[in-house]
Structures are given as structure tokens and as C-alpha cells.
TrEMBL record, chain A:
<feature type="signal peptide">
    <location>
        <begin position="1"/>
        <end position="25"/>
    </location>
</feature>
<keyword id="KW-0732">Signal</keyword>
<dbReference type="InterPro" id="IPR016158">
    <property type="entry name" value="Cullin_homology"/>
</dbReference>
<dbReference type="InterPro" id="IPR001373">
    <property type="entry name" value="Cullin_N"/>
</dbReference>
<dbReference type="Pfam" id="PF10557">
    <property type="entry name" value="Cullin_Nedd8"/>
</dbReference>
<dbReference type="Pfam" id="PF26557">
    <property type="entry name" value="Cullin_AB"/>
</dbReference>
<dbReference type="InterPro" id="IPR036317">
    <property type="entry name" value="Cullin_homology_sf"/>
</dbReference>
<comment type="similarity">
    <text>Belongs to the cullin family.</text>
</comment>
<protein>
    <recommendedName>
        <fullName>Cullin family profile domain-containing protein</fullName>
    </recommendedName>
</protein>
TrEMBL record, chain B:
<dbReference type="Pfam" id="PF03556">
    <property type="entry name" value="Cullin_binding"/>
</dbReference>
<feature type="region of interest" description="Disordered">
    <location>
        <begin position="1"/>
        <end position="21"/>
    </location>
</feature>
<dbReference type="InterPro" id="IPR011992">
    <property type="entry name" value="EF-hand-dom_pair"/>
</dbReference>
<feature type="domain" description="DCUN1">
    <location>
        <begin position="36"/>
        <end position="227"/>
    </location>
</feature>
<protein>
    <recommendedName>
        <fullName>Defective in cullin neddylation protein</fullName>
    </recommendedName>
</protein>
<dbReference type="InterPro" id="IPR014764">
    <property type="entry name" value="DCN-prot"/>
</dbReference>
<dbReference type="InterPro" id="IPR005176">
    <property type="entry name" value="PONY_dom"/>
</dbReference>
<feature type="compositionally biased region" description="Polar residues">
    <location>
        <begin position="9"/>
        <end position="21"/>
    </location>
</feature>
<comment type="function">
    <text>Neddylation of cullins play an essential role in the regulation of SCF-type complexes activity.</text>
</comment>
Length: 725, 231
């Protein structure tokens, strides 16, 4: 027995001793320079251990191992405790390395025990035992535990404040803790590390918030975040990364989110106004890491957008120029598109917020549909002159995008039709291709019905050209007379115009009659009515000093001018009688020829601006213009006057009634029975692409349909409607 | 005829059983009585009817009313028309007359007059009242294809038919109808809607009125007007 005990002790002690001696740099050991046991000694020890276990002395071997190692470690502990200042960690590290090497060897020697005795008795395997003993006697020793933690935290703090530390050493020590088990790592380092870090960043973020503007703060926060990530890669457990970044995110970002976003002069709104893409991008990347971060940005952006948009569309100054108005809207959209793509990585939720904001404020102004049509009109008249085909497409696509936001698309349609008619009839469109391209886009967006009439207008223009050719081909004798150009408009396709006639000069009326019989000769069953309020004429005039000019005038103006071929002086009354032009039109017509500088081909007595019943008119023989061709008063699409606006609005409302009824009948025909709320919802949905249906109006239509026996109310449940076949 | 006469005098046919004779007695008595009644009803009809048209016309109705000591604008005349299921306002056909008087078991003017209170009670019963209410609207549609009644007449009709039950609602609604401009006539749907309004909506607070439901628009507007008046 004694010998056995002796053997155990010597065995273990021998191994351990060799380490001590090696350290002291003297004495022979069983280890060679690289720490490998010389073979003979190893096998000797191994065999001893083997025999012990075999002869049922495993218990003794094991407990001896424990006690010997423990006392050895206690010695080690003292030497570590004795280390001063910076050498504390170094000493710990050194001793740890030694221990590991020893453990390996011991494990090898005691392998048999490890594989037989230990499993059968459920004791801790040798290597693990060695680690546990290290943990209990060194790491958790009262003199080392706290000092170790504080040292590590101190080093981290120093690094955070800009000092350079020994990262390799840190890595080793941390690795040691990790090797001792995740619980050790977490309890003895990670948890306190996270707490201290939280405190550190809480303080720092408070300082920064007080002295930095938003952009600077975000830069600092980003920097700190990156530093922590780097720290983890260099000397912490990879699993700590998400935990420490959470700490930074919480302390530096989440806790100050609102103050940052709303910071005066440098917050989110300022960044948006100044297109600070980099700062916005940084904010986006940082905020997306915290709960509700992006939501906060989005909400502030949306409310800002809605507010500025609302101001834009309700500002009376802006409303004076429709083209400018729409251009501002497009610019605003471009601005935010850039921000979202450059700074917010094309985030779809931000796109949606942008769209819903635009939809909100564009529809705040009831004239938006009219203005957008006016914008298009301006572009198609002159704005797109000289613009390349691709750029034209770009502009039209942008217009379509605004169009999509409109709730009252049918109002736009009405205005667009009016403006298109004027463009076509005055020949004032810059590019036929551009016109057609826009029609195609509208068709894609709204369906065939929307554009069929518009296309009809184009067809009429083309057909009229062919008709004119045919007319002149079959009437060669007319070659010398005044040239007539007729546009035959199909009533249903063109915007309704009041039918105005007047007395044309003899030459013209004869020509017109010839045309009428020609046309009706080839198209029986049709009725032609001359729209004298819509035409134009080119009149060659010779003035007092022989100056010749070609005057481009309206049909009405032409009628007035031709009268002066047979009279030098004409009173207003005489002109009115002769031409039978309606009074208000006649007055405007005369004003444009007598009262406008540079266009005063007529002279008026008295010289006042207003036209009085007794006024007299003469040809202005002193008329001059540096141009040969003088244009007087063309028909241009203008912003509607108040009464015109009311009229258009009323017509739109009237047009909506049958559409609502058709939708109701369609729905009821397929559903047979439906309750009130569902009808309202379905009808609204069906009409959405054209306009926003008013529930009260829908109710009115339902009642009208009940009265006309298309529907009935259910007798028992009065919320239900039934379709009557 | 003869058999029943014989029965009356006690002479019986030995081959006929006793029970059938009793029912026969009853049947013949009632059929004799009913045919007598019918005769009287018819006679009464013709006493008021117009000779040439064969119908009781407005003048005849007026006579009837004065005989009954009831004003011809009284709602009970409307109720009588309802009982008769009379189709045309101001006229009774002989079938309608027969139908009504038979149901009321009246074959003289006096009996008719006495039957009126009972008739009133009958009409007031909820199951009958809705029918009476909708009937009264249809009764006022004088022209063929007419679907609506002008505001003036509606106001009178409302007062007549609903005035006693829902005084407050009727008064306010009539006031509203007179000042609003949206509707110049009222149709059946709106007419019925008002009745349901009276029976379901607490008045005058209107607290349980929901404009999102399928109430006719005119009532939505009426409620809005009432609420504006209150503020």
C-alpha cells in the first residue's frame, strides 16, 4: 500500500515538479526542451498508472491526483497574486500555458484511468478536472477573481479612450476563460463587461448629445459601433458581438432616437431639406438596428412631406401659375426619389410612405387634375420643343406618376380633352409622337374606355386632311380663291361646345356651302354645323402707307375685318348686325384688334379700353409691325374662370351619376342580394380608378334605382337590397 | 227554400237523420241570413252609388260620411277603405263595398258607424298597422304609373295616419319637409322608411340613429337638420 501511495504522489509530483524546475531553469526533468516527456519515463509512468487502476487503486490514484494538483495550484496562485501591476496578466498567462501543457501530459499518462475507472465511477475526466481545479483555485481565488476582472475591464476602458493595449495578451486571457467553460466566460467576464460598457456608453452618449449636432453624433455612434465589432474579432468570443452591439445600439441610438431625429437645425428634417445623403444614409443604417428605428424616420419624413406638400398645394401664390405648380411637385418627387435611392437603399416601405404622402396632398387641391392637364398642355405646345425622344418619355412618365396619385381622374380626363382639342385644332402641338405616346400611357393605366374618345379626335384630324384633299381634287376651279381648311369633328369625341354661328363674308360662305354639299354627298345621313367660334383665318392686309401684312386671326375677327373692304367707318352696332357675332365674343374680338399695342390693326373712337355701343371703328392706316406675319388673339388654353370651373365641375358630377348606377347594377346583378355597407364598399372599389365615389351620392343612386324598380329593399332586413330582374 | 221552410214548421222527412237536419238548419238559416245581409249590403251600396257609373263616387262617400256623422277627411274613412281594399281613392266598387261591410258585419249605416271603433283597434294592432300604413300611400297614387306623392299631400297624410301615434316625429318631419329643397316628392321607400324611423329611433335625442346604415337619404338629412337645430 505504501508503495502505491508513494507511486501516485511521485508520479504526479514528478510531472508537475518538472515544470517548476524548468521554470527555475535548473534541474533535470523528464521533459525535453519542447516539453515532451522522454519516452522511457513516459511509459514507465504510464505503466504504473495502468497497474494501479488494474489492481483497483484507481480511487487512490484519482484522489491523489486531485490533492496533489490542488496544492500545486495553490502555490501557483500565490505567485500570481504577487505579481505587480501590468505583469499580473502576463504571469497569469504564463502559468496558464504551463498548466495546459502539464495537463496534457498527465492526461496521456493517466489515459487508462480516464477510459476505464473514470467513466465507471462517473468522475470528472482528467483534462476537465484539471481545468476545473485551475478555475477553482486560481480564477476564483478571492485574491485573483476581482483583480482579474478589474484588470480586463480597465484595459478595455483604456482602449476605448484611445490607448493601445496588448491585444494578444487579452486574447489569451479571454480564451482561457472561454476554455474554462461558457459559464465562466459569461459570469466572470462577459456580464460585467456588458454592464460596464452600457454605463460607459450611457455617459458618453449623453455628452455627445449635448455637444454635437445630429450628423456628428451619428458619425461618432457609427465609429463606436465599428470599434466594438473590431474588439470582438480581436479578443472576445464571437458570440459576444451581437450582445455588445446591442448595448451600443441601445445606449447610443435607441435611447436618443427622438432627440436625434428632432434635433433643431440638424435633425432629420434639416437633412432632408439639404439633401444630406451621407448623413441620411448613416442614420438609416444605424436606426435600422434598433426597434422602431426606421419607423421613427419614416413617420417624421411622412409628416414633414405632408406638411410641405399641403403648403405647396394651398399656397395662393403658387396657384397662379399652374405649370410652375406642377413643376414644383415633380421637383419634390425627384428630390425624395433621390433620397430614398441614395440614402435609404430603395427601401420599399419608404417608397410607400412617399406615395401615400403625395396622394394625400395632391388631392387636397381640387384643381390638381386641371393643373396637371395644363402642365401637359404647356409641354406639348412648346416645352418639349427640341427635346430628345428619351427625355420626352421621361417627362411623360413623370406626369403619369402624378396622374396616378389623383383621386379624381375623370376630372383630369375632362380637362385633358378640352386642352387636347384646342391643341389639335390650332395645330399647336409640338410633337404628334409625344401626344400619341401619352395617350398610350393613359390607356395602359386606365383602360380603353378612357382614351377611345381621345383617339377619336386624332382620327378626325387625319380624316379631315384626307377629306380636304378629296375636296380640292374634285373642285380644281377653286384653286385661285381663298383656301379653305375644314376639320370635321365627330360630336361624341370632342368636348361639347356651344353651337355658335355668325355671318361669314360672302366669299367664305359660298366656299363653305360647296364643301358642305361635297361632304354630304359622300356621307349621307350626317349633319354638319359650322363652329365659327373655333376657327382661324390668315388675312392679307394692305395698310395706309402700302405696308402689307399677313394677319393670323380668329374666324370672328376675320368676319369683322372683311367688313372694312366695303366701308371705312363702322359703328359697333353696325358690326354686330352685319356679323351676328354674340355680344361678349364680339367685344373681346374688337378689343384684341383695337386696344392692344402692337396688334392694333383697327382704330377706335373713343380710344377707351371698353367697347361702347356707339363706338366707331376704322382701319388703322398707321399700323406698323416689324413682322410681316402678325398673330392676333389665338385661342389658348387658360386656367378656367370661376364660373367655367363650376360648370366643368357640374358636368363631371353629372357624368358620374350614370357611372355609379352602372356599377350598382353590375354588382347587384351578380350578387343578387347584398347589404348596404357592402354595396358602398364594392361600388367605391369599382370606381376607384376613375374617381372617389361619395357614399351619399351612391345612396342617392340606390334610392333612384329602387324607385325605378331595379332594386328593392328586403322586407325583413331593411339593410339588404335585392336585384329585381 | 222549401225544405228549410218545411223544417221550420217541424215537419221532418223521416228518412233524414237528426244531426244533418241541425246543420242544414244552421246552414240554411245562415245562408238565408247571409243572403239577406248581402241583399241589404247591396241595397246600401246602391243608395250611395252613382247611377251611371255604378260606383260610389266622392259625392256618395261624402253622403255616407255625413250619415255616419264622420268627417270625410277623418282617418277612419281611410281605415274603411283599407278594410275594403279599395283601389282607387274616392271610389268604392260594389265588390270592395261587399268585402268591407261583410268583414265588419255591417249592413246598415248605423251598424257601420258602430263598427268604426272596433276597426280602429284592429288597424292599430302592430301586425296590421304596417299594412295600413303602406296602403295609405298607395291609395293616394291617383295617376297610373305614379310612384310618388307631392310634399304637401304627404304632410297631410302623415298627420292623418301617424299623427296620433308619433306626434313629435310627425310635427318635426313635416316642418323639415316644408323647408328642404332636395325632394319635391316622396316615394314609397321613403314613406316606409319614416315609419320604421318612428318605431326604432329614440326621439328626440336620435341617439341610436346610424347614418351609415341603409336609411333613406332624406332621413339622414332630416336627422342632420334636427341635430343642427339643437346646437
Amino acid at each position: 500500500m505504501l508503495s502505491m501511495r508513494f507511486t501516485i504522489t511521485t508520479l504526479v509530483a514528478l510531472v508537475l515538479k518538472s515544470f517548476i524546475e524548468k521554470e527555475r531553469g535548473r534541474g533535470k526533468s523528464t521533459l525535453n526542451s519542447s516539453g515532451c516527456v522522454s519516452n522511457i519515463q513516459f511509459w514507465h509512468n504510464f505503466r504504473n498508472a495502468y497497474n494501479m487502476v488494474l489492481h483497483k487503486f484507481g480511487e487512490k490514484l484519482y484522489s491523489g491526483l486531485v490533492s496533489t494538483m490542488t496544492s500545486h495550484l495553490k502555490e501557483i496562485s500565490k505567485s500570481i497574486e504577487a505579481a505587480q501591476g501590468d505583469s499580473f496578466l502576463e504571469e497569469l498567462n504564463r502559468k496558464w500555458n504551463d498548466h495546459n501543457k502539464a495537463l496534457q501530459m498527465i492526461r496521456d499518462i493517466l489515459m487508462y484511468m480516464d477510459r476505464t475507472y473514470i467513466p465507471s465511477t462517473h468522475k470528472t475526466p482528467v483534462h476537465e478536472l484539471g481545468l476545473n481545479l485551475w478555475r477553482d483555485n486560481i480564477i476564483h481565488s478571492s485574491k485573483i477573481q476581482t483583480r482579474l476582472l478589474n484588470t480586463l475591464l480597465e484595459l478595455v476602458h483604456r482602449e476605448r479612450t484611445g490607448e493601445v493595449i496588448d491585444r494578444g495578451l487579452m486574447r489569451n486571457i479571454i480564451k482561457m476563460l472561454m476554455d474554462l467553460g461558457s459559464l465562466v466566460y459569461q459570469e466572470d467576464f462577459e456580464k460585467p463587461f456588458l454592464e460596464v460598457s452600457a454605463e460607459f456608453y450611457k455617459v458618453e452618449s449623453q455628452e455627445f448629445i449635448e455637444c454635437c449636432d445630429c450628423g456628428e453624433y451619428l458619425k461618432k455612434a457609427e465609429k463606436r459601433l465599428n470599434e466594438e465589432i473590431e474588439r470582438v474579432t480581436h479578443y472576445l468570443d464571437a458570440k459576444s458581438e451581437v450582445k455588445i452591439t446591442n448595448v451600443v445600439e441601445k445606449e447610443m441610438i435607441a435611447n436618443h432616437m427622438l432627440s436625434l431625429v428632432h434635433m433643431e437645425n440638424s435633425g432629420l428634417v434639416n437633412m432632408l431639406l439639404d439633401d444630406k445623403y451621407e448623413d441620411l444614409g448613416r442614420m438609416y443604417n444605424l436606426f435600422r438596428r434598433v426597434p422602431n428605428g426606421l419607423l421613427t424616420i419614416r413617420e417624421v419624413m411622412t409628416s414633414h412631406l405632408r406638411e410641405t406638400g399641403k403648403q405647396l398645394v394651398t399656397d395662393p401664390e403658387r396657384l397662379k401659375d399652374p405649370v410652375e405648380f406642377v413643376q414644383r411637385l415633380l421637383d419634390e418627387k425627384d428630390k425624395y426619389d433621390s433620397i430614398i435611392s441614395l440614402a435609404f437603399s430603395n427601401d420599399k416601405t419608404f417608397q410607400n410612405a412617399l406615395n401615400s404622402s403625395f396622394e394625400y396632398f395632391i388631392n387636397l387641391n381640387a384643381r390638381s387634375p386641371e393643373f396637371i392637364s395644363l402642365f401637359v398642355d404647356d409641354k406639348l405646345r412648346k416645352g418639349l420643343k427640341g427635346v430628345s425622344e428619351e427625355d420626352v418619355e421621361v417627362i411623360l412618365d413623370k406626369v403619369m406618376m402624378l396622374f396616378r396619385y389623383l383621386q379624381e381622374k375623370d376630372v383630369f380626363e375632362k380637362y385633358y380633352k378640352q386642352h387636347l382639342a384646342k391643341r389639335l385644332l390650332s395645330g399647336k402641338t409640338v410633337s404628334d409622337d409625344a401626344e400619341r405616346s401619352l395617350i398610350v400611357k393613359l390607356k395602359t393605366e386606365c383602360g380603353y374606355q378612357f382614351t377611345s374618345k381621345l383617339e377619336g379626335m386624332f382620327t378626325d384630324m387625319k380624316t379631315s386632311q384626307d377629306t380636304m384633299q378629296g375636296f380640292y381634287a374634285s373642285h380644281p376651279e377653286l384653286g385661285d380663291g381663298p383656301t379653305l381648311v375644314v376639320q370635321v369633328l365627330t360630336t361624341g369625341s370632342w368636348p361639347t361646345q356651344p353651337n355658335v354661328t355668325c355671318n361669314l363674308p360672302a366669299e367664305m360662305s359660298a366656299l363653305c356651302e360647296k364643301f358642305r354639299s361635297y361632304y354630304l354627298g359622300t356621307h349621307t345621313g350626317r349633319r354638319l354645323s359650322w363652329q365659327t367660334n373655333m376657327g382661324t383665318a390668315d388675312v392679307k392686309a394692305t395698310f395706309g402707307k402700302g405696308q402689307k401684312h399677313e394677319l393670323n386671326v380668329s374666324t370672328f375677327q376675320m368676319c369683322v375685318l372683311m367688313l372694312f373692304n366695303n366701308a371705312d367707318r363702322l359703328s359697333y352696332k353696325e358690326i354686330e348686325q352685319a356679323t351676328e357675332i354674340p355680344a361678349s365674343d364680339l367685344k373681346r374680338c374688337l378689343q384684341s384688334m383695337a386696344c392692344v399695342k402692337g396688334k392694333n390693326v383697327l382704330r377706335k373712337e373713343p380710344m377707351s379700353k371698353d367697347i361702347g355701343e356707339e363706338d366707331a371703328f376704322f382701319v388703322n392706316d398707321k399700323f406698323t409691325s416689324k413682322f410681316y406675319k402678325v398673330k392676333i388673339g389665338t385661342v389658348v388654353a387658360q386656367k378656367e374662370s370661376e364660373p367655367e370651373k363650376q360648370e366643368t365641375r357640374q358636368r363631371v358630377e353629372e357624368d358620374r351619376k350614370p357611372q355609379i348606377e352602372a356599377a350598382i347594377v353590375r354588382i347587384m346583378k351578380s350578387r343578387r342580394v347584398l347589404d348596404h355597407n357592402n354595396i358602398i364598399a364594392e361600388v367605391t372599389k369599382q370606381l376607384q380608378s376613375r374617381f372617389l365615389a361619395n357614399p351619399t351620392e351612391i345612396k342617392k343612386r340606390i334610392e333612384s334605382l329602387i324607385e325605378r324598380d331595379f332594386l328593392e329593399r328586403d322586407t325583413i332586413d331593411r339593410k339588404l337590397y335585392r336585384y329585381l330582374a | 227554400m222549401r225544405r228549410s221552410a218545411a223544417r221550420k214548421t217541424g215537419q221532418s222527412n223521416s228518412t233524414a237523420p237528426i244531426t244533418s237536419s241541425a246543420t242544414d238548419l244552421f246552414r240554411s238559416a245562415s245562408s238565408k241570413a247571409s243572403s239577406k245581409e248581402m241583399e241589404r249590403i247591396d241595397n246600401l251600396f246602391y243608395s250611395y252609388a252613382n247611377r251611371s257609373s255604378g260606383l260610389i263616387d266622392p259625392e256618395g262617400i261624402e253622403n255616407l260620411c255625413s250619415d255616419m256623422e264622420v268627417d270625410h277627411t277623418d282617418v277612419r274613412i281611410l281605415m274603411l277603405a283599407w278594410k275594403m281594399k279599395a283601389e282607387k281613392q274616392g271610389y268604392f266598387t260594389v265588390e270592395e263595398w261587399r268585402r268591407g261591410l261583410k268583414a265588419l258585419r255591417a249592413d246598415t249605416v248605423n251598424k257601420l258607424k258602430k263598427a268604426l271603433p272596433e276597426l280602429e283597434k284592429e288597424v292599430k294592432r302592430p301586425s296590421n298597422f304596417v299594412d295600413f300604413y303602406s296602403y295609405s300611400f298607395r291609395y293616394c297614387l291617383t295617376e297610373e304609373k305614379q310612384k310618388s306623392i307631392d310634399i304637401e299631400s304627404i304632410c297631410q297624410l302623415l298627420d292623418l295616419v301617424l299623427g296620433s301615434h308619433f306626434r313629435a316625429q310627425v310635427d318635426y318631419f313635416i316642418e323639415y319637409l316644408k323647408i328642404q329643397n332636395d325632394y319635391k316628392v316622396i316615394n314609397m321607400d321613403q314613406w316606409m322608411g319614416f315609419y320604421h324611423f318612428c318605431t326604432e329611433i329614440s326621439f328626440p335625442d336620435l341617439s341610436n340613429y346610424d347614418p351609415e346604415l341603409a336609411w333613406p337619404l332624406i332621413l339622414d338629412n332630416f336627422v342632420e337638420w334636427m341635430q343642427e337645430k339643437r346646437t
